[in-house]
Amino acid sequence: MPELSYRDKDTVIHALSPLVKLAWGGGLVVLSLIFNHPVYILILFLSIIPMVRLAGVGREWASTLKFALWLGLSIIVINALFSYHGDHVLIAAPFRLPAVGQPVITLEAIAFGAVMALKLVVIISVFTLINLTVHPDDIMAVLLKMRLPYKSVLVTSLSTRFVPCLVEDMGRISDGYRTRGVQLDSGGWFKKIKNRGKITLALLANSLDRAVQVAEAMEARAFGNGKKRVFYKDITISKMDAVTLGVGILPLAAGIAVRVLGFGDYQYYPKLSSIGFGGWEWALPAIMIVLLAAVVPLAFLKRRVEFD
Amino acid sequence: MIRIRELNFTYNGADKPALNNINLTIEDGQFVLLTGASGGGKSTLCRCFNGLVPHFYGGKISGKAEVQGMDILETPPKELATKVGMVFQDPENQLVTTDVEREIAFGLENLGYPKNLIARRIEEALDTAGIAHLRFARNNELSGGEKQKVAIASVLALHPEILVLDEPTSELDPQSAEEVLRLLERLNDELGLTVILIEQRLDRVVHLVDRLLVMGGGKIIADGTPGEVMNGDIGGLGIGLPPVIRLMRELKSHNAALNGLPLTVKDARLRLQKVLRGVKPVAFTDAGASLEPVLNIDKLWFAYGERAVLRNINLDIERGGFIAVMGRNASGKTTLVKQLNGLLKPTKGKIRLDGVDTRKSTAADLSRRVGYVFQNPNDHLFADTVEDEIAFSLRNRRADEAQIARAVEGMLEEFELGRYRKSYPRNLSGGEKQRVALASVLVGEPEVIVLDEPTRGMDYVLKKKLISFLDDYRRQGNTVIMVSHDVETIAECARRVVLLSEGRVVVEGNKRDVLAKALLFSPQINRLAQALSGYGVADTTLTVGEMLEQIG
């Protein structure tokens, strides 16, 4: 399985300002939540593909996509099995349940589940793309730019940095238990929970030890000495970045406007409404496509400006 | 310059002082080695140099301590950071950012230096530490040795006048440790940096330093050049002398023509060549263990995903044997021994314990017969008291309480842990924790015991006790399997050595066949013996005792 953490790569997407990527990606997540129309959600999903290709992270994305699709499939199945709304009954159970009535699987429930699943795929894909193309310290720098307190941002960043250590610790502590005769994965659920609880306590003790060591190392390197901190790799915004950032935010702004004006909604129950757009309304998704894709030529332009 | 007068320090809640009337002056540009038994106050003293003691830890302090003219009792560590750089034992827990460049910038950013100065300092630090090629590397992808070099670079960037290192090589393999020590030598030699290094393995560093300080019970119990300290009465210092020095001390007591002490194998060779007369030829007879195998490894392959880590291992481990498993980092040593108690299961092939395929049992079941001691004792410690910790496995087997009480008492006595019986295990010192971990495994009386790097970071006294215990344990018909990089310990106690490389057994056999005449894995005495073979010294000599038999 390919590694899903940031790697430095020489691509136009990696070269984009982290602010642009976070604004564009954040916009996509918000849009996927506020839109209900399947065509708009599909557009959001398709807009990720060129970004992924240009960033050269297709393999990594494909591996998370596989996971997201399984998760999506489970949403479709669960919604179909437990949501009995909708007029088009595809399968009806030959029995009735108290308080629920006759369980049925409807076309509407499947369609609703499918669009929810696609929203989930969009959100997971955005997080994957950001994770693979934005340096974790740049995320921290962006948060600082947004005037979040440095110490809180640092604590968050340190917590994520030590997640792999925590996973390793857990493996070692579990092995420690096994070598002392504890059957961690057998017995009833109560015993399993009790055993896992013991591991958590040992893990906590390890983490506290680690926290003291990290704090000591930071103190020894003048952390919190009262002087105004400088950020060596601060995020600077060139004119080109400012333009790209503006363009990166546009899909979100336009999407919100579309929704406020009452477009982009879709009715799933009791009957699926028509998927097509009446009159000039087709222009709205077309505009969204253009705006979502506009960041790509600007990414190339930025590269050219830098070379010049 | 560091000037300490009548310094006493007691941690909050402790009943005895960690530092007891310390008087010490360290001149600029010295390379000082600080050693001594575990819990003797070395780390506390080092943390005084940059103010972590008392400002970070808190406690009761009295006396005077000045570093480069600054009063430590009044100056917090963050203000001393540009005077004293400190590198810690664990390479993982001192790196706070995600990549090398940002790690080096961290301290400079905290000090609010202008960006152009930070850029210059980063360049200097990268070049000085010899890690320019790692500039954009991610910290979590570095090896232990590289992480320590990054930690050193990140404090060098602050331009400290004194560099303090608390056992920086104890978690590294020999090659990485060597690289880090070479870097320190260069920093002291070429840049005139004062270096204060805590280290247990004197053989690694003693030839590099100007001064040797030994601490014990919170006091400085020996101070002088390495030659002076090691030439004097070392009884009670709790330090392990490098084998060549032990040999020369023994020889000197009989041969007045030998002057001074050699600090390196080369030095010892030159001195011995001058006085070597009669050599008594000996034939070493290494007593063999039983031929009956307790463990049989048959065509073993193991892979993590698609990456093969062990490749076609075939090995019989005989009952009553003492087997050392050696090899470079990532050669598959730990992966191999984890198969023996079922923590990992073969991808292909079989391991049989007394003829029974281990794949049919869980690690928990196998633990009754194959004990496993992890490198980090914290991985063993879960209980609230030392007593409960030791009783854990027996209680888990639902043994009779009277039997448990007897077994626990036996272990407390064996490992001298009686006075800690009600203590919280994680609050003990490193050496004490190691003893609790060992007791907690051995209380189950496994017939095979596997130890992963048990002597790493261990002081001399503890190491000696552990070796003698394991030897007794083996004599009772049990089997000891030890993963280690510690060639000197292996030469003393192992009977058979298995050398792994890239997941394959490259050499395996009697320790004499494997360790003697090897380039990298031969002990100091064997390197000396090889050079003296022209005089009739057997080139398979491994230990001081064996050498003395021939030339003593």
Order of helices and strands of chain A: HHHHEEHHHHHHHH
Poorly predicted runs of chain A: none
CATH fold name of the largest domain in chain B, please? Rossmann fold
The CATH architecture designation of the largest domain in chain B is: 3-Layer(aba) Sandwich
Distance between the termini of chain A: 39 Å
Percentage of helical residues of chain A? 55-70%
- Given this structure, which CATH class of the largest domain in chain B is correct? Alpha Beta
**Share of residues in strands of chain A:** under 5%
Q: Largest contact between protein chains?
A: A-B, 53 and 72 residues
> What level of helicity do the residues of chain B show?
25-40%
Mean pLDDT of chain B: 90
Spatial strand sequence of the major β-sheet of chain B = 6-7-8-3-9-10
Molecular shape of chain B = globular
Please describe the biggest sheet of chain B, giving its number of strands, its sense, and whether it closes into a barrel.
Answer: 6 strands, mixed
The number of distinct structural domains of chain A comes to 2
**Structural class by SSE content of chain B:** alpha/beta
CATH superfamily of the largest domain in chain B: P-loop containing nucleotide triphosphate hydrolases
Instruction: Tell how many strands the DSSP assignment of chain A holds.
Output: 2
Describe this structure in words.
The complex is a heterodimer of chains A (308) and B (552). Chain A has helices spanning 12-15, 18-34, 38-55, 58-82, 107-133, 136-145, 150-161, 163-178, 189-219, 239-260, 283-293, 295-307; strands at 89-92, 104-106. Chain A has 2 domains: 12-134 and 237-307, no CATH class; 150-219. The relative contact order of chain A is 0.16. In chain A, α3 packs parallel to α11 (283-293), α8 (163-178) packs across α9 and α10 (239-260) packs antiparallel against α12. With 308 residues, chain A is mostly helical. Chain A contains 12 helices and 2 strands, in the order ααααββαααααααα. In chain A, strands 1-2 form a two-stranded antiparallel ribbon. With 552 residues, chain B is of the alpha/beta class. In chain B, strands 6-7-8-3-9-10 form a 6-stranded mixed sheet, sandwiched between helices.
